[in-house]
Input
Amino acid sequence: MYLFNESSREIYISGDIGQSADEISASNIRLALSKLGRGDISVKVNSYGGSVDQGLEIYEMLRNHNGRITTEIEGGLAASIASVIYLAGEKRRMSPSSSLMIHNPWGFAMGDADEFDKTAEVLRMYTSRIVGVYSERTLMDESEVRPAMKVETWMTATHAVEYGFANELIGVDSNSQLSKMRAKMTECQVRSGWPSVREKQKVAMKRHEAELRSEYQKKMVGKSLDIVEKKFSKSPRMVAAHLQILRHKLNGHCLYGTKWEPLSGK
Output
């Protein structure tokens, strides 16, 4: 769902990114921007992600808008390509209960080995484009972004600020301990501290991450089931094989890094 409010100059991106009737498309956002015209705009984001093409187009439109863009996540989630859209803001705000997730793009293929090779190449191309955005707009460089995307990294609002994805916590006093810490931290210190901070993050967020990952996986697997059934409708054996894999994911496992691990984080 997308809405825009001309009086408050706000755009709401709530739902999946794509071109279906019930998704948020680049055309929707282009229309909203044309209605609002020049000037500052606030974009509220709460999305699991969706189409990379549509998401990158929305990102570029917001970045090229004639006015200051403020993006906000208020108690919601900016996952996958929605996290890229969120980075279009010059001012990027998150409430303490919000989350953000980055990972490598996903895709589906049907055909011979050559077709799968082509799909893999396209996914690598999309990955590089997204890595470029994260490297440009956050405090992480490419050598840090790529491994974080590979293992699918979930961040609380606090961690998003530490890594430069967000630059303000909603409702947190500017004189708070976090703000004082951020004022003292240089970009170099944030980068050099990434591995140790990442380890602390994994411990602190294990339970929260498992819950978010489970919710995300169930939603994505549900959509994947529909896609598989449509693509392989004339091949019952292919449908059965793919459904078995997807049900394995749905029953509590996800591809984490290079091996299968239970969502419990054990």
